[in-house]
Structures are given as C-alpha cells and as structure tokens.
Amino acid sequence: MSWLETLRTAGAAIRAHRLRSLLTMLGIVIGISSVVLTVGLGLGAQDQVRSQINALGSNLLIVSPGSSTGSTGVRGGFGSAASLTQADADAIADKSVAPDVARVAPATSTSTSLTNGTTNWTTKIVGTTTTWEKVRKRTLSSGRFFTADELSTGANVVVLGSDTASELFSRGNPVGQTVTADGTALTVIGVLAESGASSDDSNEDDVAVVPITTAQRLSGSTSNALASVYVEATSSDTLSAAYQEVNAALLTAHDVTSSSADFSIATQDALLSTANSTNKTMTILLAGIAAISLLVGGIGVMNIMLVSVTERIREIGLRKALGATPGAIRRQFLLEASLLGVAGGAIGAAIGVVGAMVLPSFINQPVSVSAPAIAAALGVALGLGVGFGVYPASRAARLTPIDALRNE
Amino acid sequence: MSADVVSRTVGTRTIIELDGVRKTYATGTIAVEALRGIDATITEGEYVAIIGPSGSGKSTLMHILGCLDVPTEGRYELAGRDVSDLEETELAHIRNAEIGFVFQQFNLLPDLTALRNVALPLVYAGVGPHEREQRARRALERVGLADRADHRPGELSGGQQQRVAVARALVTEPAMILADEPTGNLDSVSSADVLALFRELHDSGRTIVLITHENDVAAQADRVLRIHDGELAS
C-alpha cells in the first residue's frame, strides 16, 4: 500500500470523525498558538526596548559617578560619590584627549517643585549645557533651547518636558509664561517633543532643563559635582573607541586604576543587554508554559488515538483479513496521528498570527510574528503527532486479525 | 483467461491439503485442544461445506484455512504452498492473494461506498487506482449490484451488503472463497439469494468453502465435512 494511499485512508478517517478530530487537535492548537504568541510578545518587547534605548540618543555613553570609599574603608553606594565634576567633562571634551568624542553634555539633577499660580508639580531639574539637546537627540515641539549666552550668565530660563508642561499648563502655550522654583521665577522658553522613552523610574518627558549655572544657583550649592556626563561618539563605529578614551581620560584625571575607578560608563549596548536579558527570562518562562501545554496536547493525541484503535478494532481486523500487513496498519495510524498534529499546528499557527495582529490594540504591547518560530512550531506539532502516535499505531499493528474480527 | 477457464473445468489442482493439523490453545495452565488432527483435501472448483455445532472447532478450522492463524502441529498447503509456519506479514500477503472472505457480519467499512469497499483488497495488493475501479466495478456487476456502486453500506439491505462482501471476496480472483456463516445475519429470502449466488459462482468454476451450523445451508454444497470435538467425521 503506497504512502499516498495511506494518506488518503488516514485523511478519510479524520474526516469521518470531524468533531473528535477537532477536539483531539485542540491541545496542539492551543499549545502552538500560545508558543507563536509568547515568542511574538518576547520579540516585540525586545524591539520596543531597543527602539526606546535608541531614542535616548544614538552613539551615547553615560558617565556616572561611582561608589566612594570613605577613610574607614566603608564603600558607599553607586552614584554616591561627588567624584564627577565639570573639570572631568572639560577633559573628555578635549579633542586631543578623546578624538572620537563628538559632544559632551554635563548634567546635574535635583528634584524640585515647580509652581504656576496654584498648580505645583515636582519634577527633575536638569542643569546642563547647550549641547544636551543634540547629545540626547531631543527636539522641541515649541519655543527654543537656551543659548550659550544664557548659559554663561545663568539666565532664569527653563525648557519643560512635554509631560511637565501639560501638568503645569493645562491650557495654552507655556512658552513665554513663568514658573517658580524655590522662589525664583523662570521663564519658559521651550517645550521638548515627546521622547517616547519612558520607564517606571525615569520618565524622559517629565523634566525641566535649565542652564547648569542657573541650576547651581537655584540649589545654592557651591559644589560642582555632576550627576552624569552624556558623551556622544562621532559615530556608532567609534563608540567603543570613545569608551576607551573617556575611560582612560577619567582614570588619569582621578589618578585611579580601573579596579578602584570612582565612576562608571554605561553604553546603550549594556543597557540593551540588561533589558533583553530580563525580557528573555520572561519569554523563556512563557514559552515553558506553552511547551507544557504542547506536551498535554500530545498526550491528548495519544489518548484519542488509543481510543480510536479500540473503537476501530473490527476495521483493523477486517483490513488485516483482506491483506493489510502489520506495517500497513502501523503506517495508517501513524499517519493519522501526524495529520492531526500538523493540522493542529497549522490551525494553532494561524490563530497565533491573527492574535499577534489583534493583540497589540488591546494590551499596548507590540507582538512581532517570526517566520522561523512558526516553522519550528509546525515541526514540533508534526513531531508530537508522530511521537505520540507510535504507541497507538504499534498497538493497532499488533492486533491479531481473529481477535480483532471477533470483537463485537 | 481462457487457460484459466480450462484448468478450472479440469478441476484436478489441489487447493487445500490438510495433514494432521492440530491446534492447542493454552489458557493459563490448561491446554485446550481445539483441533485434534485434521486431514482433508479440497480440489479446485469444489463447493464444500464444513458443518459442526458451536464448540466443535469449526471456527478454529476456519481461522487456519483462512490463514488468520497457524496450526500448532501438522501441515497446511494452500494452492501448492506450505503456509503452516509463515510470519504475520507473509500470511497477510497470502490472505490478500489467495483467499476471499465472506463474514457473517458482512464487515463492510461504513464510511466507504460499495465500490471502494470492493476495491479495498486491491489497495493492499498494490493495484493502481484506475485498474482498481475497473475491477471493483466488474465484481459488483458479477453480483448484480452495478447500480449500487456509489451507495454506502448503510443505504443497502442486508442481502445487498452481503452481495457487496461477496464481490469484495471475488475481486482479487482468489484460489478460494471462504464464507463463515454467510447467511447467519440474513432473513430467509436474502439467505436464499446469497446461496444462489454461491451456486452460480461454483457453476462458473469457483472453489467455495462454506462454514455453517445449519444443515439446510450445508445441503447446498456438493460435499459436506462434519466436524465434531476437533475431529472430522465423514
């Protein structure tokens, strides 16, 4: 009996019991569709994180003050040291020291309450230089960024993040209006366009940017410590060279070795890999659950195939009496199980793809469908059908024709 | 075809040769001897009935004749070939080529049309779809059911279903037709109908072995073998 003939027989048997075949496939349908969806969710989240991190500014290095070690040998927490200063920023900006650095934006950061009449809103005041706008790849939705003159004179001007602006000025254009910070009136000269990059702990759209000189006067601090220095490399290819140069410059300036470095430099890659590894854990977890449902689906196929063998014991007996060899019977049942697996896999993949298209409008989370994941899922479905079909098929093949025919 | 017809009319070829066939079933520690040494010869073109009450070993003999089982002891030659010790796969090929079964329960597959049911043995013989359909159609014509080819068994009467089963037994041109209580599930009219068909087939040279417990059915055959307690009594 040829494979084509066997395939036709198996297909006819599946069609003859439509409802049962559908229920048998259900486990595999659910398993495959959830695999396609979870993998899609994981990939979608990775894409999202990547675009968010890219939105922070490409070719970006972020230098942060490191941990401080007191005279008693007690090591402070990350970022606790006042070890990063304007002098460091100037050193990095020196083309002869760091030729692959394009721009440098030093930044201070304090949390302050801004008031507009009776409305007040606590936000992050960032004191920086004119290069910040370029280094952070930010654009303005209205107004302008502060100028070099305003920076050198410490003018009372502020550029608001889009969220901050809408919190303080529910109506009208805030540009030209005044907000008060610690009793100092600041003129709003611009509003930043939405960055789209936000996480729970840092909303890049809830910020008030002022000249660094103004920020130092506002806080009344004489310290010239910086919260961070944003460094833009000349291109993404020179990012690692820039990293080396900045690192070397700061080690020399602070007179420390790399093991006792009092600063740290984060790259987008580092941020990306941290975010991705978190995502990967989630994806693996979800895919694990999906794999278990696939296993359950496979056992379902085996269960129904065993029932089918028992139910069709007379048919098997008759086929054997008419000349079907044990091999032919085994192939018939194996192929039937495989067909159920593949059909279930195909339906599951279709549901997964449709779900991937529909889901983003409900959960505000991108889902990307990956062709290799679908191909793998179909392969797994076929494997499940074959794997869990082997036992029922060999049971059917082993039946003796007399016992099978005698059964009534 | 003509040579075939000639050899059938001569009727000297031995189809079945049983020599000291014994069958013992072991159930736990108790061994039951279902057949205690059967010797029999059936030649081509014969119409033989095997009759016996239930428990006489008649079913066991039918299973061995039909190559559904092998004897514990003794020799069984079917169409000149010793089939006493064959493997399951070889027995399947012998059943396919040499034996046409007709069962009490008809045993037609309910999801297939009459034509596809008749063609089923040819599927396992490896015959192509086109030739299969032609041969199955001819076999249905032979039993007078050409116009029912596309009906499913559920749409046919009991007598018609048994005729389809006979057509299925004929389609491979086997050495013998082995009918196990073929009228057991039929009313008297259909029974007479099916027995008339067997008579007709016999007249055209077919070898028929009919197993029954009814004397009037056995009386239709040319020769009757009586089995009792696992032995033939002539």
TrEMBL record, chain A:
Primary location class: membrane
Membrane topology according to the record: Multi-pass membrane protein
Positions of transmembrane segments: 21-43, 284-309, 339-363, 369-391
Organism: Nocardioides marmorisolisilvae
Localization: Cell membrane
InterPro entries, sorted: ABC3_permease_C (IPR003838), MacB_PCD (IPR025857), Macrolide_Exporter_MacB (IPR050250)
Residues in ABC3 transporter permease C-terminal domain copies: 289-401
Protein name: FtsX-like permease family protein
GO-annotated molecular function: transmembrane transporter activity
Family: Belongs to the ABC-4 integral membrane protein family.
Limits of the MacB-like periplasmic core domain: 21-248
Keywords per UniProt: Cell membrane, Membrane, Transmembrane, Transmembrane helix
Lineage: Bacteria, Bacillati, Actinomycetota, Actinomycetes, Propionibacteriales
GO cellular component term of the entry, any: plasma membrane
TrEMBL record, chain B:
Pfam families assigned to the protein according to its UniProt record, in alphabetical order: ABC_tran
Superkingdom classification of source: Bacteria
GO cellular component assignments: membrane protein complex; plasma membrane
Positions of the ABC transporter domain: 16-233
Keywords of this entry: ATP-binding, Nucleotide-binding, Transport
GO MF assignments: ATP binding; ATP hydrolysis activity; transmembrane transporter activity
Protein name (Swiss-Prot/TrEMBL): ABC transporter ATP-binding protein
Species this protein is from: Nocardioides marmorisolisilvae
